């Protein structure tokens, strides 16, 4: 099996809050909901202090889930839950003008589990995530 790239990626030139809103809308347009949200800057500042989170800049992790595909994946491979939801990262380094949006490549689920039943699901979810990124 060939090594899968870790993330599907795109870059937009806009402010961070607009990029987050656009990412949420693009995900929703492809049938994904956002189940979790982690503000890495805030979390690092709260836990480590001393502006530790400022080093990463704007960095938001969205836990995206398409319920239909999640159901199929769990049915095919019950342990898949440790790899769900699909994380989508919206990030802007300090001083950068562009915002990068990375989506977990679902092909990693197949590579990590070696479960053939996940191949079709990962391909379809990957196409939906790529379409969401393309709509940004």
From TrEMBL:
One Pfam family cited in the UniProt record for this chain: DUF302
InterPro entries: DUF302, TT1751-like_sf, UCP021774
Residues that span the membrane, as ranges: none
Highest taxon listed in the record's lineage: Bacteria
Full protein name: ABC transporter
Organism for this UniProt entry: Mycolicibacterium fallax (Mycobacterium fallax)
């Amino acid at each position: 099996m060939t090594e899968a790239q870790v993330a599907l990626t795109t870059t937009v030139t806009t402010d961070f809050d607009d990029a987050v809103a656009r990412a949420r809308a693009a995900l929703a347009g492809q049938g994904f909901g956002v189940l979790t949200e982690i503000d890495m800057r805030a979390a690092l500042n709260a836990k480590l202090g001393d502006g530790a989170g400022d080093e990463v800049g704007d960095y938001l992790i969205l836990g995206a889930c398409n319920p239909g595909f999640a159901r199929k994946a769990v049915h095919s491979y019950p342990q898949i839950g440790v790899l769900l939801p699909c994380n989508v990262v919206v990030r802007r380094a300090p001083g950068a003008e562009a915002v990068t949006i990375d989506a977990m490549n679902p092909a990693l689920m197949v590579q990590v589990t070696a479960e053939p039943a996940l191949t079709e699901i990962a391909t379809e979810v990957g196409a939906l995530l790529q379409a969401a990124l393309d709509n940004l």
